Amino acid sequence: MKLEVCANSYQSAKNAQDAGAHRVELCQELSIGGITPSYGLIKQVIENLKIKTFVLIRPRSGNFVYSEEEFQIMKNDIQLCKDLGCYGIVSGVLNSDGTIDVKRTKELVELSKPLPFTFHRAFDEVKNPIETLEQLIDLGVERVLTSGQKKAAQEGLDLLRQLNEIADGRITILAGGGIYASNASKFKAIGLQEIHASSSVRINQANSMFAMPQTVSDITNIKAILDAI
Fold first, then answer.
1. What family does the database annotate (predicted)?
2. How far apart are CA 45 and CA 8, in angstroms?
3. How far apart are CA 128 and CA 113, in angstroms?
4. How far is Cα 227 from Cα 199, in angstroms, rounded to an integer?
5. Rounded CA gap, 124 and 120, in Å?
6. Is 102 within 8 Å of 122 (Cβ atoms)?
7. Which of 63, 90, 107, 166 is 20–30 Å from 80 (CA)?
């Protein structure tokens, strides 16, 4: 079983590599669900680390319905990631009615080639996950990151199992959301091949009127999950 670490900084990505994780999804601002990391962060990770690096392409927090300007930003960021030598892309677009925006998602998948494409947790907001899964397969998406449409993936085990059976090797079901060493084996038990976790801990920071909780992916936590699977 493979572990993808959701890395919100260079240190998190380095810790993931040092702990033996299989790859990272690089992003920033996990407190709002993650957004596209800066050019400088992507470049630093690609040039200095060897771990396979997927990059989140999400121009802002909130929903996954984007304006034309926001969509253009996403396409620009994908091209930058390709130019920098990233290993894969994580993204996706929805319509306001809770369906996948097939046209735009296809455009992102095609632009990302030859890099593999992961459809992110926008999947957890679609009205018909089974139909959407088939659409993603048709689009050539390599994997879908999902909690089984629940706040925590452990609560979505039934749907995750169903999705994995329907996928039948045509697309990878990547379980994510509240996965720790204590429950990681449950996802392996239902036949999943990959899980996604931030494995983060809060770190100290100086007092500041602008201070927000700061987290970093932790080597000990990552190793514990790897031991569990």
1. Belongs to the CutC family.
2. 11
3. 27
4. 13
5. 9
6. no
7. 63
